[in-house]
Amino acid sequence: MRTPRNDQLGDSSRAGQRGQHAPERRCVVTGDAWIGVDRDALEAAQAKGKLKGGLARALHEGAFTIPDDLGARIEAQLARATLDRLGLEARGGMLILGSERIEDAARRGQVRLLLHANDAGEDGRKKLAQAWRVGEDDEGSGREGTVLPVDRYTLSMALGRENAVHLGVTDARAADRVLAHLSRWQFFTGWFRDAANRVSDQDSRTAGNGMASRESDTDSPVSDAY
């Protein structure tokens, strides 16, 4: 249950009465215990009474309660953390929207991470993915980008833009920042369609040269879950 790679919960993120453990945006339950399983496993453990026992051992105390909707709270906050991150990157000029703009940038090798709303059309996804593979000299790899667990309406609201269906992240470090949140959200919800499907570093280019580094991969909850 405990893994040092997840972020620690600050006091400002606690909700409810003292002694009640609530989630933080990075899939953390308290400042002293971390969650490294998906929602199904968490709720199964909670239903069997094993979650409280595990937390009691980790915290060396048992005077606390766990919200019945803990899984839903964690999922909602992981979603908000990812969408907030995307919003910040958009305001920082690290995202491009619109199929034509993304396709042009992708063919030039300028897209570090390709994202799609979950209601994006298959033809549109494939067209952009092909441009992405061409730009990265990676044709035949089958890379198609990452399908987000939200629709275009939710994505548009988060970004403050109209009809945000496809997103291209153009900065390597921005891509890593987004994936740090997205991979946790995908893992916890079980939404791993094309998870972390992004430009790799197999061509030896570094983050400083515009290639997404692999640091966020090593921090993914997939490797931490047990």
What descriptive keywords fit this protein?
single chain; 226 residues; mainly alpha; 9 helices; 43% helix; 6% strand
What does this structure look like?
By secondary structure, the chain is mostly helical. It has 2 domains: 11-68, no CATH class; 80-218, Ribosomal protein L30/S12 (60s Ribosomal Protein L30, Chain: A). 43% of the residues lie in helices and 6% in strands. The protein has 9 helices and 4 strands; from the N terminus they run αααβαβαβαβααα. The chain has helices spanning 39-47, 50-59, 70-91, 99-107, 122-135, 152-159, 172-189, 215-218, 221-224, and strands at residues 95-97, 113-116, 146-147, 166-169. The protein has a 4-stranded mixed beta sheet with strand order 1-4-2-3, sandwiched between helices. The longest helix is centred in the middle third of the chain and has 22 residues, at 70-91. The protein is elongated. Residues 1-30 and 193-226 have low confidence and may be disordered.
Profile the largest sheet: 4 strands, mixed
**What name goes with the CATH superfamily of the largest domain?**
Ribosomal protein L30/S12
What is the third-level CATH name, the topology of the largest domain?
60s Ribosomal Protein L30, Chain: A
CA-atom Rg in angstroms: 19 Å
Query: What is the end-to-end distance?
Result: 7 Å
How many individual domains?
2
Query: What is the CATH top level name of the largest domain?
Result: Alpha Beta
Give the beta-strand count. Answer: 4
Rounded mean pLDDT is 76
Low-confidence stretches: 1-30, 193-226
Structural class: mainly alpha
- Spatial order of the strands forming the largest sheet: 1-4-2-3
Shape: elongated
